[in-house]
Amino acid sequence: MTSPTKPDVVDNPDAKRFEIRADGELAGFAEYRLRPKSIAFVHTEIDSRFEGRGLGSALVRTALDDVRERGLAVLPYCPFVRRWISTHPDYLDLVPADKRAEFEL
């Protein structure tokens, strides 16, 4: 029996989304709208065949780490991204302080 490969997360700017691949297949994505100084996450989706494997968390963590490196502010319109940030307070600083109340953070 072969073990599943480690998921791979990449930014696909042409599609305006971060994508996660698992076992060689597209397993999910996080759509965004990029602005000069910020990125708005608008929708995250994991294919039902891949649910329950922590891929949503891996996708969001990697996307936010990439965004942090680029020095962008995060606007978490997507409920999944917003909930993830709320349970990982070390990422709260990515959301501008004056926008946190809007996102209930």
Automatic annotation (TrEMBL):
Residues 1-105, 10-96 form the N-acetyltransferase domain. SUPFAM superfamilies: Acyl-CoA N-acyltransferases (Nat). InterPro entries: Acyl_CoA_acyltransferase, Gcn5-rel_NAT, GNAT_dom, GNAT_YJDJ. It holds the Pfam family Acetyltransf_CG. GO terms for molecular function: acyltransferase activity, transferring groups other than amino-acyl groups. It comes from the Bacteria. This is Uncharacterized protein. It comes from Saccharopolyspora shandongensis.
